[in-house]
Amino acid sequence: MAGEKPPVILEGIGLVREYPGRAGLLRRAQPNRALKGVDLQLRRGSTLSVVGETGCGKSTLGRILTLIDPMTDGELIVDGEQVDIRRHHLSRELRRKVRIVFQSPYGSLNPRKKIGDALGQELLLNTSLDATERRVRVGDMLERVGLQRDHAGRYPHMFSGGQRQRIAIARALMVNPKILILDEPVSALDLSVQAKVLNLLADLQREFGLSYVFISHDLSVVRRISDEVMVMNSGEVVERGTCEDIFANPSHPYTRQLLASTPSTDPDAIAARLARHAERRARAASQTTGDERD
Ligand SMILES: Nc1ncnc2c1ncn2[C@@H]1O[C@H](COP(=O)(O)OP(=O)(O)OP(=O)(O)O)[C@@H](O)[C@H]1O
Ligand SMILES: [Mg+2]
Questions:
Q1: Would the CA dihedral through 45, 51, 55, 56 be positive or negative?
Q2: In this structure, which residue's CA is closest to atom 3 in ligand 1?
Q3: Which residues does a 6 A CB cutoff place in the pocket of ligand 1?
Q4: HSE (CB half, 13 Å, CA atoms) of 40?
Q5: Least enclosed by CB within 10 Å: which of 101, 188, 222, 269?
Q6: At a CB cut-off of 8 Å and minimum separation 6, what does 182 contact?
Q7: Are 239 and 248 in contact, with CB atoms under 8 Å apart?
Q8: 247 pLDDT more than 50
């Protein structure tokens, strides 16, 4: 479709992140440059995927974009506001604009905290809503992500993996962010559950006008959901473009290699695979009882 592109809501220019290296017997510590000058632009309401093999710097980039980690060098502009490089003086308002969802919500959800309290805490810290208002908002959001209001009284271990990921998404959305950084958000889930969570993310994106940075090593997922893709290798972007272009004409050898090493990046094959999987799950579910929903 022709027309003007939406405005850029998140921009990184020359992002560098160095971690301190370890010294050897006869050698001084060399810093490990996890990001070597990464540029990126995320447009409002769109999904930019970041792909690449393990250790290429995807999560490091995600943490910098979420303002969790400082960068060593570069410029970061969030919704028109330049971010202080060392993250001093970051306003609460700025932090609220970008939220992250990790691969394993088990790691990020406190096992001893009821999920209603975990979600409510976001509102307690960031809004002036009273307890009743917070409870209502938490219930609304749980329903919005496909759970039930009374799930607020449960602990994280009382949910399935897919449900926990829904909770993590709900928590990220409590303060009405504009941008979500999704770091391998479905990688730990079964294929059929993956599809449902991806559908949920797509619905939420449309409903709230959200912009996503979707970090993944799974190209079949990336192909389904991205507007633009950037391919990283060893802390550098080696190729970027629209999703169609990258998959139709990968120009960098690394991208070609990445595509070739993915079992199937053909959308019809993926749809068929998901359908087969869903069928198997449905058959298995009909043989057991239980009301768990992923
Ligand atoms: N806190 C840290 N301290 C030191 N080095 C780190 C730290 N976090 C990441 N690194 C290093 O930075 C590089 C990039 O790591 P990162 O976790 O960003 O990769 P990734 O692309 O997310 O990998 P994966 O696909 O396995 O999640 C790696 O060499 C890693 O060892
Ligand atoms: Mg990672």
A1: negative
A2: 19
A3: 19, 32, 34, 52, 54-60, 217
A4: 34
A5: 269
A6: 100, 101, 201, 212, 213, 214, 215
A7: no
A8: yes
How far apart are alpha carbons 119 and 106 in whole angstroms? 15
pLDDT in tens, 105-140: 777 789 999 999 999 999 999 999 999 999 999 999
Counting ligand 1 atoms within 8 A of each CB, the residue from 17, 30, 51, 60 with the most, and so the one to mutate, is: 60
Q: Assign 264 a pLDDT band (cuts: 50, 70, 90).
A: low
DSSP for 68-95, written as a single string:
SS--SEEEEEETTEEPPTT-TT--HHHH
User: How far apart, in whole angstroms, are the C-alpha atoms of residue 226 and residue 105?
Assistant: 23
The protein residue whose alpha carbon is closest to atom 26 in ligand 1 is: 54
* Whether the predicted pLDDT of 232 surpasses 90: yes
pLDDT at 277 over 70: no
How far apart (Å, rounded) are the C-alpha atoms in residues 53 and 38? 16
Could you read off the pLDDT of 201-216 as tens digits, one per residue?
A: 999 999 999 999 999 9
Q: Which domains does the chain have, with CATH numbers?
A: 8-21+31-287 (3.40.50.300)
Alpha-carbon gap, residue 10 to 162, rounded angstroms: 28
Per the CB < 8 A criterion, the answer to whether 126 and 96 are in contact is yes
